Amino acid sequence: MRKKTINLIINREDYQKYENFFILFKKIVFVFFIIFIIVFFYFFIRLINLNKQIKDYNSEKINLLKIINENTEKFVKINYLRSKYYDFKNFIKEDSNSYFYYSLLNDALTKSSESANIKEFNIDKNRNVDFTIAFNDFESLRDFFQFIESDIFLKNFEKIFLKNFLVIGATENRSENYQLSFYGKFFPYEKILNNN
């Protein structure tokens, strides 16, 4: 026997549960969809802005590269000048101010004797000096020995020692020659200027 009608009232409670579940499910999907759309538009706008920034940076990079290419020679000259400046700065740090000390010694020798001259002169950055003075005659040598004991000569040195005394005999081409070699240490530049 076949049934001609369906009784929905018997199972109505079960269908109501399913219907409530599907309504809740639709609401949750709708909320997720809205969140997804908001996040999507946020990242889309952010990507557009980042893309615009990248384009701006690329155009700026291209402009700077053009400037660098146009001014390469100037940059090379500037780098050369910079390196020379640092070389000069390092030289000044290591400089012994040798011309000042050489002039000081030469002036002192001129006061003592006209025939005395500096044959060798070496000075380092710590003012340690090694020099040789040559004389053409014995009288000049004798006058110099008196002079080196005077305050005019000694006031410029912290210490000074006679290292070597050399007599070079006369030959056909030149007369007898005398040489004195000294080593010692000059006073600092500022102290010598204050003493004079």
Question: What do you see in this structure?
Answer:
The longest helix has 59 residues. The protein has a four-stranded antiparallel sheet. The protein is an alpha+beta fold. The protein folds into two domains: 82 residues; 98 residues, 2-Layer Sandwich (Gyrase A, domain 2), CATH 3.30.1360.100.
Keywords, please?
Gyrase A, domain 2; 4-stranded antiparallel sheet; 196 residues; 6 helices
Briefly summarize what is shown.
With 196 residues, this protein is α+β, with helices and mostly antiparallel strands.
Topology:
Layout: H1 12-70, H2 72-94, H3 98-112, E1 117-123, E2 128-135, H4 138-148, H5 151-154, E3 157-168, E4 177-186, H6 189-195
Antiparallel strand pairs: 1-2, 2-4, 3-4
Q: Structural class, judged by helices and strands?
A: alpha+beta
Write the CATH homologous superfamily of the largest domain: General secretion pathway protein M, EpsM
Give the number of DSSP strands.
4
Could you give a short account of the major beta sheet? 4 strands, antiparallel
CATH names the topology of the largest domain as Gyrase A, domain 2
Count of discrete alpha- or pi-helical segments spanning 4 or more residues: 6
Distance between the termini: 143 Å
Rg calculated over all Cα atoms: 49 Å
Strand order of the largest sheet: 1-2-4-3
- Could you state the order of secondary-structure elements as H and E? HHHEEHHEEH
- The CATH class assignment of the largest domain is Alpha Beta
How much of the residues is beta strand, in percent? Answer: 15-25%
Give the % helix: 55-70%
Round the mean pLDDT to the nearest integer and report it. Answer: 83
Instruction: Provide the number of structural domains.
Output: 2
